[in-house]
Amino acid sequence: MPVLSERVDQAILLAMKWHRHQMRKSTDIPYASHLLAVAGMVAEMGGSEDEIIAALLHDAAEDQGGRDTLAAIEREFGKTVANIVESCSDTFESPKPPWRQRKESYIEHLAKASIGALRVSLADKIHNARTIVFDLRQYGNQVFEKFNGGRDGTLWYYRSVAHVMKQRFPHPYWADELTRLVDEMHHFSKAS
């Protein structure tokens, strides 16, 4: 992979601007830590510069302004980045549709998403699953109280995403990593 250009610097600055005051759900951890971790994982997966930029901005449209933000991303970084960001968003509607409906639609969408979108989504889900496993080990099942799907819905969702990734993602190690983490989520949620 070539050296990353200044476009990545710009994406980092924009991600920090849009997410500066956002924290990870029910924590004091800056949300930017998630964006940087996902972008780093996409780079480790061999992702393109556009995919790394999309990873940095993957939640911007959904969390910070909807389609207007998506249009700004397209103007600044191009259609490929905007398409990946859109593909990684489960809705721009306000109010959001019911949780289960959004997640079922997202899983269906993954079955036909581009490899770039799958790479960013998989990195996102791996990082989130690692965080859930870590929190389950520390706090037990109360972790699921912060998720709209609760314990059963969250486990169903991550298992379903892992299943699609195992079928579609071209590098089995990464899909296997998500499956392994989902197995740990199940294990530690039963142990609580």
3D structure, described in words:
It contains 10 helices and no strands. It has 192 residues and is mainly alpha-helical. The protein has one domain: Hypothetical protein af1432. Helix 2 runs antiparallel to helix 3 and helix 3 crosses helix 6. The protein is globular and about 45 Å long.
Brief overview, please?
This protein is mainly alpha-helical and 192 residues long.
Which characteristics define this entry?
192 residues, 10 helices, single chain, 0% strand, Hypothetical protein af1432, mainly alpha, globular
Rg over C-alpha atoms, rounded to the nearest angstrom: 16 Å
Instruction: List SSEs in N-to-C order.
Output: HHHHHHHHHH
Q: Strand count, sense and closure of the main sheet? A: none
Please identify which CATH superfamily we are dealing with: Hypothetical protein af1432
Share of β-strand residues: under 5%
Helix content: over 70%
State mean pLDDT (0 to 100 scale): 93
Please identify the structural class as seen in this structure: mainly alpha
Shape-level CATH architecture: Orthogonal Bundle
Low-confidence parts lasting 5 or more residues at pLDDT below 50? none
Q: Count the E strands.
A: 0
